[in-house]
Amino acid sequence: MAEQRNSNTLGLLLRELLKEHSLSMRKFSELTGIDTATISRIINGKRNATPQHLEKFANCLDVPLINLFEAAGYAIEQRQEESDSDIHTSVDAIQSLLKSSNVYDDEFSVSHVEQKLESYGLYAQTEEGKNTIHKDFDEKIKSVGSIGPFISKLKELYEKFSLGKGTLFELTVIGSTLLYFIIPVDVIPDYLFPIGYLDDAIAVQLTTKTLIKKIT
């Protein structure tokens, strides 16, 4: 069970973020789907935020999930590999969330995501794979109904794929990520909402890192 810090670090951070985004408590409630009373109690330190709350807050406020986990007092192991720090900390956050959610028993790993991406990369080169992306991407975005860097990056990748902007390698990598997002059978099943899309966020991170390495 995660423990809240003695000082209301999360509450202070949320107040600051709401102010930065010019969001009222009521509007924040509408965007996250969490009732105003619950948000108020979390901000005032009268209730612990669940991992599901934090995931919705992170998407809405365009802030790394890891920041909210740390502010809420979740014990997250930091790894020191500088080049991979963003992915490592995200994996640590996912592991903590899965452990506390009690709805997913398997061990999560980046290698599982990479294996899926590799197989989807081959599919993305086929006409069937391309048609699946063009036909189902917008509908999947609507079904998720989330905002934030994860979704914004996916839309950016989709635009590049649709316009054919990139080499065959780049379009294959991008296509694999779009298929990973669209097809519900991935490392963490999408029906385990809201945690079902955390591995999709990792897939986006891996793709972004691969594309940057290719450029440099």
UniProtKB/TrEMBL annotation:
GO terms for molecular function: DNA binding. Keywords: DNA-binding, Membrane, Transmembrane, Transmembrane helix. PROSITE patterns: HTH_CROC1 (PS50943). Gene3D superfamilies: lambda repressor-like DNA-binding domains. Its main location: membrane. Residues 14-68 form the HTH cro/C1-type domain. One of its GO terms (cellular component) is endomembrane system. CDD domains: HTH_XRE. It comes from the Bacteria. It is a multi-pass membrane protein. SMART domains: HTH_XRE. It is found in: Endomembrane system. Pfam families: DUF1232 (PF06803), HTH_3 (PF01381). This is DNA-binding protein.
